[in-house]
Design goal:
The protein is of the alpha/beta class. The chain has two domains: about 70 residues, Nucleotidyltransferase, domain 5 (2-Layer Sandwich); about 170 residues, Nucleotidyltransferase, domain 5. It contains six helices and eleven strands. It is globular, with a radius of gyration of 19 Å.
Length: about 240
């Protein structure tokens, strides 16, 4: 079995895989990884991969150092099953690349746009030949609400939950609809622009924020909240097969 450790900005996700299949997913603190010993005791893991977008503290580093199996760290030198055309691979967030690998594993030989809606919204493109061309980074939903509040003098901090109207009738509904509709139009715009250039394009939506929006492109969209975990598992297996 494979142990997958995905340390994000707000939470750590730990998954156990058997071959390509998820056995169980755990959510843990990205500051402690306190559940890691129990997970290792519960499952007979044979190898592990870890990736992080934050600097690790001493407690987390110690937990990872105590793993009873070999640990592969995902970084710019890790061998990948796709060709990385990014000009500065050392600055590329591991989650962006892992999501691309996860999508390619499910639909090899396809042009794919991966949209990850989390703390930020990222857009990644990999072509049918398995070449990752790069992508774009945009503010996520909470970042947009906080920016409206913190970078203005009087606008309140609004939650995404609440009354929604096509056109706001007060400040709260105007801000809520402005942020959420703005994100919807942004995402739809990316999809339509890429679809125009790559007619056989497939789209993956992943990340912590769920979006439901009306579009005539729904038939090409696949929602997969575990895409990054699946990509990390694929990278681990790929490197193990090369040994």
């Amino acid at each position: 079995m494979n142990l997958i450790i995905d340390i994000g900005n707000t939470v750590a996700k730990i998954a156990v895989f058997k071959d390509k299949d998820i056995v169980e997913v755990f959510y843990d603190s990205n500051q402690t990884l306190e559940n890691l010993p129990d997970i290792c005791a519960k499952y007979a893991v044979e190898k592990a991969i870890a990736a992080t977008v934050i600097d690790l503290n001493e407690q987390v580093s110690a937990q990872l150092a105590c793993l009873p199996v070999p640990l592969l760290w995902l970084n710019e030198t890790t061998s990948l099953p796709v060709e990385n055309l990014y000009e500065t691979p050392e600055t590329l967030g591991y989650d962006r690349m892992a999501a691309v690998v996860g999508a390619c594993e499910q639909f090899p030989g396809k042009d794919i746009l991966v949209i990850d809606a989390g703390t930020c919204i990222t857009y990644e493109f990999v072509d049918a030949a398995g070449r990752y061309h790069g992508g774009n980074i945009s503010p996520g939903v909470q970042m947009r609400f906080k920016a409206l509040h913190e970078l203005t003098g009087r606008l309140p901090l609004v939650s995404r939950e609440g009354r929604r109207l096509p056109l706001g009738k007060d400040t709260d509904t105007a801000m809520r609809e402005g942020v959420l509709k703005g994100m919807e139009y942004e995402i739809s715009g990316y999809i339509m622009a890429m679809k125009h250039k790559y007619p056989e394009l497939l789209v993956f939506l992943t990340g912590g924020d769920d979006f439901s929006f009306d579009t005539n492109l729904k038939s090409i969209i696949f929602a997969d909240r575990f895409l990054v975990l699946k990509g990390l598992n694929r990278i681990l297996n790929y490197n193990n097969d090369r040994i």
